Amino acid sequence: MPTRPDLAPRRLFTHGSLSSCDRWSRSLTSSRVNHLYVESLGLLQGHRVAKDERRAFALNAEAAHGGHADAVLAMGWFYLNGVGVERNVERARRWYRESARRGEPRAMFSLGQIAYGDGDFSDALTWFTRASEAGHVRSFYWLGKLHWRGHGVEQDRKQAMRCFHHAASSKVAEAQRALRFLR
Predict the structure, then answer these.
(1) What phi and psi values does residue 15 have, to the nearest 5 degrees?
(2) Which pTM does this prediction carry?
């Protein structure tokens, strides 16, 4: 029996590989995840609502699990600082690593600071270098500190000064203070 082309199943509203309905559904999901993140910021800051750090954490966690890049980064901050959740440096590291895998320089910088605070200067050097290569200028100041003191790298005060100058020229206050002190 011949089939009638007008009765054959077909995808309506197709465009590229996604139907309009699929794209609309994904944008709703993306919009919802973004809304959760923005709402968490409002609760965290007490902006137009009562400040509620636990609820801010919960909404941010939902946004992070939904794939919101800034929410993934913020999860590290929440855990590292114990805001709305018990402080847990290991969980902070895990979230920051996830964010760093996505290319986020602020996460790389935060991992460097955690490593520096733990006295793991070799790991700090790795993370500050990655962050600086990704355009995070404050990392140059921390690289300068490592080079100045010879932590995780051979002591090289000329390299330290280059790092301090680079950071200071980008208005990094710590680097500007270091240069005033070292002159």
Answers:
(1) -155, 115
(2) 0.82
Question: What is the span of the domain harbouring residue 139?
Answer: 111-183
User: pLDDT tens across 33-71, in order?
Assistant: 999 999 999 999 998 899 999 999 999 999 999 999 999
pLDDT tens track for 91-126? 999 999 999 999 999 999 999 999 999 999 999 999
φ, ψ for residue 50, nearest 5 deg = -65, 140
Q: What is the CATH number of the domain that holds 38?
A: 1.25.40.10
Q: How many domains does the chain divide into? A: 2
Q: Which of 102, 130, 145 is the last residue of a domain?
A: 102
- On whether both 136 and 67 belong to a single domain, the answer is no
